[in-house]
């Protein structure tokens, strides 16, 4: 019997509940696999006893990045890991946006400030500050130019925790048309969703945010599909991807123009299966195929 580990993290006050997890465990078992939920940091787990370990909702990884990446390396040597450790390492730091830009993929313009860098923040437009290693809008905030002093304190707090900051212009189109998340599984488009703006003006960086407000099904446009596919083609080890989510926003040319990549989620993207229940069989099929190589 095929043994599959669906990898998650321990519950905690800063960790969302993965409501898709029991759905996938049940569906995989009904398909004849031995599937179970496993904590990534459980030192008692024998990863070599599984045919495949699928990273599902390790949503605490961004503040335990070094520990998590070391685990991914170990797990990937013991069994098949999806996505592979080298992809996880590349994608766990959002400086990958620079790699995508160099490959000609349209992305939201981004600058990076490491510890010791002099903050050079915008003085003429709204912008966003967030860490290069982060999830669920943790340590993210939206600023106007008159919030400069607060933004500098925000940067100092992140640097004190050893985080590199990224600064992006706030894409005004998000307030109108939201973000679109195109989910791929087994190399094919699985489904797409749209969500509203996560960052509202004046929300402190250390306050909890709703990661996916106003989530609804979405039919991607041809332009969105094209940009998403270009982004995936630029990923190292693309042929080994089991899953991917490409988050897109409108560019300066607005709706109908060329979308831009906001983020590329290759580590632990939420699948939103509660919104797309019809996608469960395709996810199961792709996982079972990956388990046998």
Q: What would you say this structure looks like, in words?
A:
The protein is an alpha+beta fold and about 290 residues long. It has 8 helices and 13 strands. The chain has helices at about 20-30, 65-80, 85-90, 95-100, 150-160, 175, 220-235, 280-290, and strands at about 5-10, 35-40, 50-55, 80, 110-115, 125-130, 140-145, 165-170, 180-185, 190-195, 215, 245-250, 260-265. The chain has a 5-stranded antiparallel β-sheet with strand order 11-10-9-12-13. Strands 2-1-3-4 form a 4-stranded parallel β-sheet, sandwiched between helices. Strand 3 (about 50-55), helix 2 and strand 4 form a beta-alpha-beta unit. The two termini are about 15 Å apart. The model has no long low-confidence stretch (mean pLDDT about 90).
Q: Brief description of this entry?
A:
By secondary structure, the chain is α+β, with helices and mostly antiparallel strands. It has helices at residues 21-30, 65-78, 85-91, 96-102, 148-160, 174-177, 222-233, 280-291, and strands at 3-8, 34-39, 52-57, 80-82, 111-113, 127-131, 141-143, 165-169, 179-185, 188-195, 216-217, 243-249, 260-265. It is globular, with a radius of gyration of 19 Å.
């Amino acid at each position: 019997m095929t043994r599959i580990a669906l990898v998650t993290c321990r519950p905690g006050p800063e960790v969302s509940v993965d409501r898709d997890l029991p759905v996938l465990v049940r569906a995989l078992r009904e398909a004849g696999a031995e599937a179970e939920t496993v904590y990534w940091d459980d030192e008692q787990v024998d990863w070599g006893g599984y045919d495949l370990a699928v990273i599902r909702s390790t949503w605490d990884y961004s503040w335990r990045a070094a520990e998590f990446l070391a685990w991914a390396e170990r797990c990937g040597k013991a069994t098949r890991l999806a996505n592979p450790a080298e992809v996880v390492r590349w994608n766990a730091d959002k400086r990958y946006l620079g790699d995508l830009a160099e490959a000609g993929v349209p992305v939201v313009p981004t600058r990076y400030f490491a510890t010791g860098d002099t903050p050079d923040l915008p003085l003429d437009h709204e912008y966003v500050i967030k860490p290069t290693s982060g999830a669920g809008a943790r340590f993210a905030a939206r600023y106007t130019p008159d919030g400069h002093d607060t933004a500098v304190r925000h940067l100092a707090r992140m640097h004190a925790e050893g985080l590199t900051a990224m600064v992006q212009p706030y894409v005004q189109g998000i307030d109108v048309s939201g973000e679109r998340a195109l989910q791929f599984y087994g190399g094919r488009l699985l489904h797409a969703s749209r969500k509203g703006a996560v960052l509202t003006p004046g929300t402190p960086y250390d306050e909890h945010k709703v990661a996916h407000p106003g989530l609804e099904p979405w039919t991607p446009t041809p332009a969105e599909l094209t940009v998403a596919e270009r982004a995936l083609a630029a990923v190292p080890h693309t042929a080994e991807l089991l899953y991917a989510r490409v988050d897109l926003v409108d560019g300066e040319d607005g709706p109908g123009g060329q979308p831009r990549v906001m983020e590329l989620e290759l580590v632990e993207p939420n699948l939103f299966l509660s919104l797309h229940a019809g996608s469960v069989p395709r996810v199961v099929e792709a996982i079972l195929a990956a388990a046998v190589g």
